[in-house]
Design a protein that fits this description.
alpha+beta, four-stranded antiparallel β-sheet, 4 helices, elongated
Length: 297
């Protein structure tokens, strides 16, 4: 069985069907080899034969016209479609399928494997610059590079999570976990909008203002973001907990009222968790000492 795809060529004014022999095949349009004459003849050129038994992912870099092939042997083959020769082979992960490929600028290459790891390479070297693990042991299905004036990010996803992390250090910037399995992620470049193709009934859409403005066709999102930023107030901190005045006195910490260790709120105080832990330990030691004194008497 096979499937048929159609491609429209504006300068010819016609639509040409192309029959793909196998299901689940990857279709990449190479502008440098897809001339009008070849498309009109409706036939395939001679195939590129790789050293592996299967190709899982392809990516074409338009700047230096190289075609990257991710194989089922854990390697990435780099081909020049003009000469139809393999320029180099990159051994990424032995016996691990390559499930995602992405390039950035001219020399940066991102490779995702079925074990949930992302490898960042400079294509001039065979050693990875950085390795990022999703810790879900699920195949990486998408990789994007987001470079800005302030920070450079890498965006990667597997079926369980969507992560944004710093390209230089690998430290996390933010992450989203999905209830339904994520099949693929599409990024509207130049903005902070993402579309999640998932196993649910509806496609999920996320907007992250820190990565860029909203697209022109949904400009109202920027107005909503500005209103939320103006109305937000940080009054509760992650490392603080609430305690009543009676509990504070029972711990023997009432002398801390008015210091930076306590923040007055309603009928009690917000306190640093470490502060009361120390107070509890002090009270326990005092109680033990008093009990021992009674028994000594």
């Amino acid at each position: 069985m096979g499937f048929t795809t159609e491609r429209e060529y504006q300068h010819l004014g016609e639509i040409f069907p192309i029959i793909i022999a196998l299901l689940n095949s990857l279709l990449v349009l190479l502008v440098i080899v897809c001339s009008g004459l070849t498309c009109v003849k409706e036939r395939f050129m001679s195939p590129i034969e790789t050293s592996s038994t299967g190709v899982n992912k392809t990516h074409f870099h338009p700047k230096h016209s190289l075609l990257f092939l991710g194989t089922d042997k854990g390697t990435v083959e780099c081909w020049d479609p003009r000469s139809r020769e393999c320029c180099a082979t990159l051994a990424v992960s032995e016996s691990q399928n390559i499930t995602s490929l992405q390039t950035n600028k001219i020399l940066e290459l991102g490779v995702g494997t079925e074990s949930g790891k992302v490898f960042l390479y400079d294509i001039r070297s065979t050693k990875p610059v950085l390795i990022k693990d999703h810790y879900y042991d699920k195949p990486i299905n998408s990789i994007y590079f987001c470079d800005s004036d302030s920070d450079n990010y890498v965006i990667s996803s597997c079926s369980k999570s969507f992560k944004i992390w710093f390209k230089e250090t690998g430290k996390p910037f933010t992450a989203i976990e999905s209830d339904e399995d994520i099949c693929d992620v599409a990024w509207y470049e130049g903005s902070g909008m993402f579309f999640f193709a998932n196993e649910g009934q509806k496609m999920k859409t996320y907007y992250i203002p820190a990565l860029g403005p909203a697209p022109k066709w949904c400009w109202f999102l920027d107005n909503l973001t500005e209103e939320l930023e103006e109305s937000s107030e940080n009054v509760v901190y992650d490392d603080y907990k609430f305690i009543t005045s009676e509990e504070l006195e029972s711990f023997g910490l009432s002398h801390l009222i008015g210091t930076n260790y306590l923040r007055a709120y309603m009928h009690g105080f917000f306190y640093r968790y470490e502060t009361v832990q120390r107070g509890q330990g002090y009270c326990q030691s005092v109680c033990i000492r008093r009990i021992q004194e009674r028994f000594d008497r």
